[in-house]
Amino acid sequence: MTLALRAANPARMPDFRPVGYVIGLLVAVLGAAMLLPMLVDIAEGRGHWPVFIQSAVITILSGGLISLACANGVKEGLTIQQTFLLTTGVWIALPLFGALPFVFGDTESRFVDAFFEAMSGLTTTGSTVLSGLEELPKGLLLWRGILQWLGGIGIIVVAMVFLPELRVGGMQIFKSESFDTMGKILPRAGQIASQISSIYLGLTMVCAFSYLVLGMNAFDATVHALTTVSTGGFANYDASFGAFKGNLEIAAAVFMVLSALPFVRYVQLINGQSEPLWRDSQIRVFMITLLVIVAIMSVVLFQLFPQAWGVSMREALFNVTSIMTGTGYASANYMTWGPLLISMFFFIGLIGGCAGSTTCSIKIFRYQLLFASIKMQLRRIRSPNGVFVVRYDRRAVGDDVLSSVISFFMFFVVTLGLMAVALSLTGLDFITSLSGAATALSNVGPGLGDEIGPAGNFAGLNDTAKWLLSLGMLLGRLELLAVYAIFTVNFWRN
Question: What is the pTM for the complete model shown?
Answer without folding.
Answer: 0.91
